Amino acid sequence: MSGWLKIVGLGPGAEAMITPEVSAALLDATDVVGYVPYVNRVAPREGLTRHGSDNREEIRRAEQALQLALEGHRVVVVSSGDPGVFAMASAVFEALEAGDAAWRALDIQVLPGISAMLAASARAGAPLGHDFCCINLSDNLKPWALIEKRLRLAVEADFAMAFYNPRSKSRPVGFERTLDVLREACEPERLIIFARAVSTPEESIRVTTLKDATPEMADMRTLVIVGSRQTRLIERDGEPLVYTPRSAL
């Protein structure tokens, strides 16, 4: 079988954060499949067909990619960040499990990328330096009650927390509710980082405390990191550094 399928992460935005492995896959591909803004990050060239689709068409997009590979195409499915973190790798495997049995014979690989979570943490210092968890705050695919339960349990366990998809135009109150839950469970001085559009020209990093955080500080391009009780801030000339010591108890 000549076709193959690679599910790749394009990193958080800057071309320099695309891994050499992913760059090589894109150069060898005949087809790139993904959400339109991510497909547009792949430069057009002769011999490459770009298939862009809407953000809520993940399974259909995965099925299209699998079928193209079955027909002999060299297919790359693109996500931002890492493809295994709230991205297309899971969607492809969900389609694979439920779909055409012939798809299971394909050469399928997942190529990791630099996630927004790790890029944001690096910009701020090392807030994820000890135990942490990652929560998608979108309630499009799971109920708010489950999100709230996970928030409360993460605080109880004293994890640092990284939040994806905190606030959108269609979900303007979700992050406000998240802050309310955190304020019930955490001390007012808990450190919180708003890292927006990391590695792009629009990048901004804001370090504040839970008592001073507002919902408007986040949007869909923002990765939010909430420290644990042990997370510390180092003041210095210029931007402060935030880190969680590995010796935290």
TrEMBL record:
One annotated GO molecular function: precorrin-3B C17-methyltransferase activity
Pathway named in the protein's UniProt entry: Cofactor biosynthesis; adenosylcobalamin biosynthesis
All residue ranges annotated as the Tetrapyrrole methylase domain in the record: 7-213
Matching CDD domains: Precorrin_3B_C17_MT (cd11646)
Domain of life: Bacteria
Pfam families recorded: TP_methylase
Membrane-spanning segments: none
InterPro entries xref list: 4pyrrol_Mease (IPR000878), 4pyrrol_Methylase_sf (IPR035996), 4pyrrole_Mease_sub1 (IPR014777), 4pyrrole_Mease_sub2 (IPR014776), Cbl_synth_CobJ/CibH_dom (IPR006363), Precorrin_MeTrfase (IPR051810)
Protein name from the UniProt record: Precorrin-3B C(17)-methyltransferase
Species per Swiss-Prot/TrEMBL record: Halomonas citrativorans
